[in-house]
Amino acid sequence: MSETPVLHVLNGPNLNLLGVREPDIYGRDTLADIERRCVATAAGAEVVFRQTNHEGVLVDWIQEAREGADALILNPAAYGHTSVALHDALKALSIPVIELHLSNPAAREAFRHRSYVSSAATGVIAGFGAAGYELAVQAALILIRERA
Ligand code: DQA
Q1: Is 8 helix (H, G, I), strand (E, B) or coil?
Q2: Staple 130 to which of 29, 97, 108, 135, CB 3.0 to 4.6 Å?
Q3: Does residue 1 form part of some domain?
Q4: Ligand 1 center–CA 103 separation, angstroms
Q5: Is residue 45 part of a domain?
Q6: Ligand 1 contact via 120 beta carbon (within 6 Å)
Q7: Each residue's pLDDT tens digit, 31-87
Q8: Number of domains into which the chain is organized
């Protein structure tokens, strides 16, 4: 681990629309608001915060986390329910991985109940809205500290 912990926070498809997309489900915070909340919670740890609508880009970024990241927080969005490629990329990591969802997929439509990410994650945070990102940052910092 580097002296300053480095957290990679990756966001999948349609999360660029947070704030306007189904606010009753996902809340009114924009992704920029959420990034600010992560940086504030990280209290000096470095936060690399990214979003893409493309599955292959997420795979590339997960692979990048193999070098330089001390923990990975991933909101895979819909790809979590479909992507073996994300699962395989995550399995190649040796750092803590936190799967994150704003909503609680287990309480929603049946097609959201399957996650290809959960079985490759250290743990899952879901259903706490934007606050879940802060919880994930806290969890990541605890896991990093415990591994040091
Ligand atoms: C989501 C839940 C997914 O089911 C959905 O496809 C998303 C967002 C969440 O953060 O609640 O796009 O990952």
Answers
A1: strand
A2: 29
A3: no
A4: 6
A5: yes
A6: no
A7: 999 999 999 999 999 999 999 999 999 999 999 999 999 999 999 999 999 999 999
A8: 1
- Cβ of 17 closer than 6 Å to ligand 1, yes or no, is no
41 to 12, 101, 132, 133, 137: CA distances (angstroms): 21, 18, 11, 9, 7
d(CA 113, CA 110): 5
Nearest atom within ligand 1 for CA of residue 77: 13
Residue 78 CA: nearest ligand 1 atom is 6
Q: Phi, psi at residue 14, to the nearest 5°?
A: 75, -5
Catalytic residue check, 26 = yes
Q: Which of 24, 101, 117, 128 to mutate to test the pocket of ligand 1 (most atoms within 8 A of CB)?
A: 101
Q: Residue 10 carries which side chain, given as an amino acid letter?
A: L
Give 103's strand partners. none
Reported pTM: 0.97
Domain membership flag for residue 19 = yes
Q: Answer yes or no: is 74 within a domain.
A: yes
Residue 87 contacts by C-beta under 8 Å, 6 or more apart in sequence? 116, 117, 119, 120
